[in-house]
Write the C-alpha cells for this entry.
Amino acid sequence: MSPKENQTAVVRVSGLEKSYGPVKALRGIDFEVPAGSVLGFLGPNGAGKTTAIKIMTGYLAADAGKVEICGLDIAEHPLEVKRRFGYLPENNPLYLDMRVSNFLEFTAQAFGLTGTKAKAAIERAVTQTGLQTVYRRGIAQCSKGFRQRVGLAQALLHDPELLILDEPTNGLDPLQVVEMRHLIRDLGKTKTIIITSHVLPEIEALADSVVLIHQGRKVADGPLAGIACNGHGSCIARVTFRCKDCDLEGLLEQAGAVLLEERPSPFADPSICSALIEVEGSEGLSRVAQAAADRNVDLIELAPQSGTLESLFQNLPPGSEL
Ligand code: ATP
C-alpha cells in the first residue's frame, strides 16, 4: 500500500493549551494529520502556530492536552517520538562555521547513525535536497536558499515518516521560494508533512488540507476547497450547469447566490453554461445544488475557487496582525 493510501492518523493533537504568563497562546486545539497527507497549519502572526509546533516536537511542554505521533504520546516517549519526525524550525538554526558535510555528519551521529549507515543516509538526504554542489562549502558561504536546504537535509537524515516544517520559505527570494516548494511537493509524495505558514498561496500550492488557527483557537479544519467556503463570510465558486434555455439568474436568486460573471462554457456543447458566483459559506453552496435539483437542472460542477482563503483570513475577528 502506498503512503497516500494509508489514511491512519500519524499525528493526533487534542485539547492543547499553553500560556506564557498572562498570554494565552493556545486555548484548546484539536486536529489530526492522516498518513501521507500534507497539512497546512495556517494562521495570522501570533495565532499560536509556532507554540503548537514546539509542543508537538517536544521543545515545550503543554499546560494541558496531548500530542500523539505514530500512536506515541510525546510527553511520555520523547526520544522514541523524536525518531519518527524531522523538524525544520522557524529561522533554521545552523552552525554557520561548519561545512555542510561536517554538519550533516554531526547530525547523523546525533541520530545514532555511524559508518556505512551514516554515509548512505547523508547521500540520500543530499540527493533529495539537491545539495551536491555545496556539499564541501562552509554553511556561512551558502545562500539563504541552500541554507534552508541544509536544514531540510538534517530533518530528512534519519528518513522519518513525518516532516514538520515551520515557515520553510520565510526570508527566501522568489526563485528560492519556488525551488523550496518544488522540494516540499516532491517530499509530500512519500511523507506526511505539516507545514506552517501565514502565506496563503504557499499553503494553496502545497497542502491537501488545512488547520486554520486564530488567537490560539482552531477556527477551520478540512480540505482546502471546503475551507475556502466554510466560514460565515462569502466565497466565490465556479458553477457549471447543463440546461437548454435555463433561467440561470432565477436559479441563483432562488439559492441566494450572486452572479458575478458568466463564463464561456468549458465544453463545446452549447447547452452547458458556466459562471462565477458568490455564495455565503458552505450552506450557500448547498442551496445552489438544491435549487438546481428543484429545477431539474443538471449540475456538472460547483467548485470553490482557490484564492478565497484570503476572504477567510479577512473574516477572522480583529485582534491579529496579518
Ligand atoms: P508567527 O506567524 O508570527 O510566528 P505564531 O502563529 O507562530 O506567529 P506564536 O509564536 O506561537 O504564534 O505566538 C503566540 C502568542 O504567544 C503570541 O501572542 C506571542 O506574542 C506569544 N509568545 C510566543 N512566544 C512567547 C514567549 N516565549 N514568551 C511570551 N509570549 C510568547
